[in-house]
Automatic annotation (TrEMBL):
InterPro entries: AB_hydrolase_fold. Keywords: Hydrolase. SUPFAM superfamilies: alpha/beta-Hydrolases. This is Alpha/beta hydrolase. One of its GO terms (molecular function) is hydrolase activity.
Length: 227
């Protein structure tokens, strides 16, 4: 399971580990490698996990994009996808999540991590501000570059997603302006075997596993088989 932009393995485990264990799947979550190697390091971690047998791959936001990207490159090694909060299709352009990541990167470069976090604390839900206050310092000097890399990387296109034949579960929050539920629905329409389940940001703030449960339930509905 791959983390989102500026997030880390701790959060992605809190989302997926117990919901996946409930269907007999063990969670592996790589620690981010900050800076220009961020995406390549995540994809390499999935390659290593799939060296012996096909794996169920997933992630949150940018991590969901990378999981689907890897599946398109490795159809014979992917057993399915469990995705949360995809943020755009194809090129990021002016997608809200891309705009937010670029703005955060610029703020980090201008004021440093601590300065940028003061604005996050003032504008984001308290649980998200606390999560980023924990995760961002771990990126060190690579935080701004990591945010910029994610904001500039294309996600799979609908035509690309149509080539994936594995079961795909997608979780979305109906009240998330940064990861619009319409994007999740567009991914599901493009995928041959996919389902969407939704929750709300406030619920995820109290119970991160709610996001993972929604994705796993959607994957089961799409034809996923427990381990």
């Amino acid at each position: 399971m791959l983390p989102g932009t500026g997030s880390d393995d701790i959060f992605v485990r809190s989302v997926f580990e117990i919901p996946l264990a409930a269907v007999g799947v063990r969670t592996l979550a790589p620690t981010p490698v900050p800076g220009p190697r961020l995406a390549d390091a995540h994809l390499a971690a999935v390659d290593a996990a799939a060296a012996v047998e096909p794996v169920l791959v997933g992630g949150v936001s940018f991590g969901a994009h990378l999981a689907a990207e890897w599946a398109l490159r490795n159809p014979g090694r992917c057993a399915g996808l469990v995705l949360a909060l995809p943020a755009w299709n194809g090129e990021p352009e002016d997608a809200p999540a891309a705009l937010s990541a670029r703005a955060s990167a610029a703020d980090v470069r201008r004021r440093g991590v601590d300065g940028a976090l003061t604005d996050v604390a003032a504008s984001a839900p308290a649980w998200l501000a606390e999560e980023l206050a924990r995760a961002w310092p771990g990126y060190g000097d690579g935080l701004a570059g990591s945010l910029e890399l994610a904001a500039g990387r294309a996600a799979p296109t609908p035509d690309g997603l149509a080539a994936l034949r594995v079961p795909v579960g997608i979780a979305a929050c109906v009240d998330d302006p940064v990861h619009p539920v319409g994007v999740a629905e567009a991914w599901a329409r493009a995928l041959p075997h996919a389902a969407v389940r939704t929750t709300r940001l406030a619920v995820v703030g109290r119970d991160p596993e709610a996001l993972g449960r929604a994705a796993v339930l959607a994957w089961l509905h799409a034809g996923g088989r427990p381990g």
